[in-house]
Give the backbone structure.
Amino acid sequence: MDVKDLSKWTDEQVFAKTGQHLDSLHKSILESVLQRQNFHKIAGNNGYSYDHVKREGAKLWKLLSDVFSKDIEQKNVRSILENKAGSTIYNFVNSPQINSNTISNSHVNICRKNPQSLEDIEKRSPSSQVQNQLPIIDLTTAPELNYNYGRNSETSTLKEWILEQTRLITIYGLSGIGKTALTLKLISEINTQFDYIIYRSIEHLPKLINLKDELKQFFSQSHATPLPEIIDYFRSSRCLVILDDVQNIFKTGNLAGQYLTDYKDYCKFFQQIATLSHQSCLILISWEKSG
Ligand SMILES: Nc1ncnc2c1ncn2[C@@H]1O[C@H](COP(=O)(O)OP(=O)(O)OP(=O)(O)O)[C@@H](O)[C@H]1O
Ligand SMILES: [Mg+2]
C-alpha cells in the first residue's frame, strides 16, 4: 500500500462511519503528512495560510480519532493508519535513472512487512553471527551483474530495515531496472548480520515443497540434527533468503499479485514469514507486489 492507497483506504473508513468522504484539503493534508511533509510546506503547496492548514489539520485528526477510536495526531497518524490497514508498512523510494539505455523506468520500489520492535530484538538471544563467525553464503545461482553507482537511498533504507530485523522485504519494479543488482550489492554490505545467506530465483516455478527442501538442506549444513521447518531455522539462526523473479508465480492479466493456482501455498508461506516471530529475513524480488 502506498500513500495514495492508504489515503483512499482511510477515506473509505471515514465514509463507512460518517457517510461523508474527506474533503480535498483534508485529503491533501493527510497525504502530505503521510509523506512526512510539515504544515508550512502543505500550506505553500495548497495555496492556504499556515494557520488555516493547521486548523483544518486539527479538525482532520479529531475526525480520524473518532473514526478509528484512537488519539490520532500528526506525529502518529502514519503508524496508526498503517497498523489499522493491516500491520503493513510500505515505503517507496524513487531514485534517479541509472542508465537511459538499459533502465526502462527509474523506480525501484521497496516495501517491508513487520519490522521487529527494538524490545524484541534486545530480548533475543545472540545468534552465532554475533560471535563473529563467517556467514555461510550460497550465491551460486545468482547472476553476475554490474553495480557501479546510484540507488544510495534504497541501499541505506534496506540496510536500516535489515538492522531492524524486518522479516519480509519486497523489492519490485519493471524488468531491467536493477532490482537484482541492487540486492546482490546489498548482500555484500550486510553479510555480517547473518549466519546464512542464500539466493534462489523461482523463474522456473519450483513447487514450494521442493524449494523448502533445498533451503532446509542448505541451512542444515551446520546443524547436528536437521530441523523440521524453515521457520525453525529462521528462529535458531539469522538467515537471509532472497527469492528472485517472484512475478512468475503470479497470474498474468489479473489484479496484481494473484498467485497461480498451484502456487497459492507460496502466499501462505510469505505471510508466515512476515508474521511469525523469528530473527531472519526474506527478500522477494518481483515485477509487481505480492498480494
Ligand atoms: N547501479 C547499477 N550500476 C550499473 N549497472 C547496473 C546497475 N543496476 C543495474 N545495472 C545493470 O542493469 C541491468 C539490469 O539489472 P538487473 O538484472 O538487476 O534488473 P532487474 O530489475 O533485476 O531485472 P529483471 O526484473 O528483468 O530481473 C544489468 O545488466 C545490471 O548489471
Ligand atoms: Mg532481476
